[in-house]
Amino acid sequence: MILKIDELIEEISKYVALHPGDIIATGTPAGVGAGIETT
């Protein structure tokens, strides 16, 4: 990840009010792994 979880929460909270129970969805967008070969 680019940011650690605590850094991510700190950055998001600069723009959005976060409340107990809020969910922050993180992950890889669709299509990113399409070019990866598996063995």
UniProtKB/TrEMBL annotation:
Coiled coil: none annotated. Keywords: Hydrolase, Metal-binding. One of its GO terms (molecular function) is metal ion binding. InterPro entries: Fumarylacetoacetase-like_C, Fumarylacetoacetase_C_sf. It holds the Pfam family FAA_hydrolase. The keyword Metal-binding applies. Gene3D superfamilies: Fumarylacetoacetase-like, C-terminal domain. PANTHER family: ACYLPYRUVASE, ACYLPYRUVASE FAHD1, MITOCHONDRIAL. This is Fumarylacetoacetate hydrolase family protein. It comes from Staphylococcus aureus.
